Amino acid sequence: MNPSTNPMSIKTAAKKYDAVIIGAGHNGLVAASYLAKAGKRVLVLEANDEIGGATTSVRTFPEFDARLSRYSYLISLFPDKIINDLGLNFKSISRRVSSYTPYSSGGHDKGLYVSRIWDEKTSASFKALTGGDNEAKAWQSFYGEISEFAQRIAPTLLRPLSRRSELKKRIGLPKVWDYLIENPVGEIIAKTFQNDLTRGVILTDALIGTFTSAYSMQANRCFLYHLIGNGTGEWKVPAGGMGALIRELERVAKSSGVSITTNSRATQVHSEKNEIAITLEDGSKVNTRYLLSNAAPQVLAKLRGINPPTSLEGSQLKINMLVTRLPELKSGVDSQDAFAGTFHINESFTQLESAYQQAESGRIPDTLPLEIYCHTLTDPSILNPSLHREGYHTLTLFGIHTPAALFDEHHDKQRAIALSSAFRSLNEYLIDPIESVLARSSSGELALEVKTPLDIETAIGLPRGNIFHRDLAFPFREEEEVQGWGVETDDPRIFICGAGAKRGGGVSGIPGHNAAMAVLAKET
User: Is the pTM here over 0.85, yes or no?
Assistant: First the structure.
């Protein structure tokens, strides 16, 4: 067996490395590849029996040959530079539709359609919603400003952190900086747009995975990262599913000389004078000059025996489904248009704020805000060809404002209540209930998987199910902070290479790149 894939190889291989990386998620593999290509001896330790972490594709429903991106499912932040630097044979595909949002008006079912590239159909949809052209013009102007901001800030994400004042000057868009960085994003949304539904569609980018109000600065950070990826902010579909990215990263890492060991859980990290000692679950030890942690900072702190940082808890209900056909909508829109982008459900500004207040008070929101994404309309390759011919599709539902605390007591019961609330919310806009199109196994079991934040924590180790590991941070350093890459810790030999770094969060590879650069900078 190749020692790079043997989970027991570290027992017999030399145990001194230039760098050891805890966690074989995409960021860990990016860091490992950069370091190995620079001539470093690198070992990646993965606690589970397979690599990938949150970026895996799984045959979720065994009887059906469909590989779903179970936890993370779209690509925006992953820079083309990393793909080119590492020689990754990986692509992501543009969606033709940005979003569709059903609504009722005057007893009639309608919907706001937004194409990825602005067109007459989009203009007409805004006019039908608002009765005029002002909202559409405001939308184009607002996103035009943010697009310019994204183009200017995106290249800085792969450089050492700039000071706040330096970055503001470099970007040179003081008005946009003010409403994105200095003041709650809810204020500019409420000021710029008049329609409650329009406001809500925009606000959702500030709330994905983040339990906060529109008027909290944490919403600004979430909003920023959702709109600056690759200088465009476009969310694309990973061709072949998210697991295709992991397979390609694994190929590049191994061809560069990286050793990857699965079933190798670290239990203790001890810092010595010139190296770091890592103890594994089986009692063996590995020594390294540098340690890079792709685990959450809270997990790393526990391994080091120090106090963990505090952060918001995860706040998303994740439902994966396989359907025999796309559901039909009361609005009469073609389902292939409605589900081709992000399908927003009960996400007006007022509904989002109300749901936040209800969840904060300790109860599952009466009207659960939801988003649905259909991978197979853009990339059917994740389906067996026969399923594709028969009209099957995958649907991924993301419930907003469902924090982990709602599930601490009576978890299974609360999960069932949340599922019922989600389906009730969705079914308001469907001709037939979603349950009627769910695939069933030969035993009658529905092709349905429900994950709460606590389920996500159990499955892939994200503290309280926080998909960003900890609170997102703005992509700069304050004036008094020392220079760095945003990956440093209090120990000069230990770095964060995962989503918990500054400029982390999402499927980006950015903290992996930056941690590798921080290590290499110490060698020069």
Answer: yes
